[in-house]
Amino acid sequence: MKGDKEVIRALNKVLGQSLIAINQYFLHARVARHWGLEALNDGFYKQSIYEMKWSDDLIARILLLGGLPNLQELGKLYIGEDVPEIIDCNLRLEKQKYDIISDAIALCEEKRDYVSRELLTKLKDGNEEYDDWLETQHDLIRDVGVQNYIQSQMDDHD
């Protein structure tokens, strides 16, 4: 199947964002685990796995359209050095991804590639769920204070 070159480019741009997210969220998960923040580790790690699965779906779609998945042009990771900064960095990436996915969805609509649009809409929905979770963490830090928030993220089993 021969897909539209602009759609393939847009899918590759979304793929690039997803690949950044895999690495950023995985690193943040392991930093949180190192700090003993198991609940945060779990949230970040789970999202990195979702991103990996979505990347797999994007790669399959790009290949089906006759394109070559671009796994080489990775952008900048936003790495936080403390808990609030980590959450802010992840929110920043989610906002960036949202805009890129939204643009790709609009292009797919214009090019009448409804299958690619459906895939991107699924990714956008998943990213919105994670964005909501991050916003909740951000609000909790503001409402209870960073020290109380951090304590709430620790593993009680030690």
Automatic annotation (TrEMBL):
Q: Does the keyword Transport apply?
A: no
Q: Would the keyword Metal-binding turn up in this protein's UniProt record?
A: yes
Cite the Ferritin-like diiron domain residue spans from the record. Answer: 1-145
Official protein name in the record:
Bacterioferritin
Q: What does this protein do?
A: Iron-storage protein, whose ferroxidase center binds Fe(2+), oxidizes it using dioxygen to Fe(3+), and participates in the subsequent Fe(3+) oxide mineral core formation within the central cavity of the BFR protein shell.
Q: Which SUPFAM superfamilies match?
A: Ferritin-like
Enzymatic reactions: Fe(2+)(in) = Fe(2+)(out); 4 Fe(2+) + O2 + 4 H(+) = 4 Fe(3+) + 2 H2O
- Gene3D superfamilies in UniProt: 1.20.1260.10
Q: EC number(s)?
A: 1.16.3.1
Q: Which domain of life is it from?
A: Bacteria
- List the InterPro entries hit by this protein, alphabetically: Bacterioferritin, Ferritin-like, Ferritin-like_diiron, Ferritin-like_SF, Ferritin_DPS_dom
